[in-house]
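Example complex used in Figure S2.
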Amino acid sequence: MNKENKYRELFADLPEAVYEPLQFTGYPEEEMLQRARDWYEECERRRTTRHFSTKPVAKELIELAIATANTAPSGAHLQPWKFVAIDSPALKQTIRDVTEEEEYKTYTERMTDEWRQDLAKLGTDWVKTHITDAPWVVVLFKERYSLKEDGKKKKHYYVDESVGICAGLFISAIHHMGLSTLTHTPNPMGFLNELLKRPPNESAVLLFPVGYPSDTAQVPKIARKPLEDIVQWNDG
Ligand code: IYR
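Predicted assembly (236 residues):
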C-alpha cells in the first residue's frame, strides 16, 4: 500500500477537519521592527519580585490574564490546563502555612548542596509572605488525562509543553497589565488537590501570587544571558 492510501485508510471514518479563513493582522515592515523592539523591551523590563503590596486587584484583571493564557497552543488542542484563582485570605493563609512547612523541609533536607549553591544568589527561602500579601494566588494545574463519559481515561498530549506555554502567556499578560507575579513551585504540591477540591487527573504545576509590587520591592541583581550564548544560527 502506498503512503497516501495508508494515511487515507486510517483517517477514513474520522470526522473531517473544518477550516475557516485566518484572521491575520499584518503590519508595514518599519512598524514590525518597532513593535518587535517595543515588545522585547517590555518583556526585558519584567522582573520577578517576592515583595508584594496588599493593595486589592480587580477580579476582571485576573480573568483577563487567564483568558490570555487560555489562548496558548496545546497538543491536539485539548487545552490540558485548569486555573484556580484565590482571593480568600483564609485559604491563602492555609496554603502559606502548608507551603512553609514543606518548603522548610525542602530547603533544609531535600535540596542538594549544589541546588542550595545555585539558589543562594536569588535569596529565596522557605518563608512565603507573598502568598498572603498578594491579593490573588492563582494555581495552575495540568490535566495529565481527562475522563471520558464511560469513565475511561482519555490521553492528553504534550501536556508539559502546552502548560509551559500557557504559563508563559499568563506571566506576560500580568506584566503587560502592570501587575507582578512570581512563579512559585511548592514542593510537594499534592496537598493543593485536596485543599482546592481538584480531581486526581489534575496536578498543580505552578502557584502564582499576583498583585502590585510593594513600594519597597527588591529584586536580585542578576543579568540575563546575552543572545550569543543562547542562539545558534544555522550550523554554527
Ligand atoms: N520550590 C522552592 C525552591 C526554589 C527552587 C528553584 I529551582 C527556584 O528557582 C526558586 C525556589 C521555592 O519555591 O522556594
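The CA atoms of residues 92 and 132 lie 6 Å apart. The domain at 49-197 is CATH 3.40.109.10 (NADH Oxidase).
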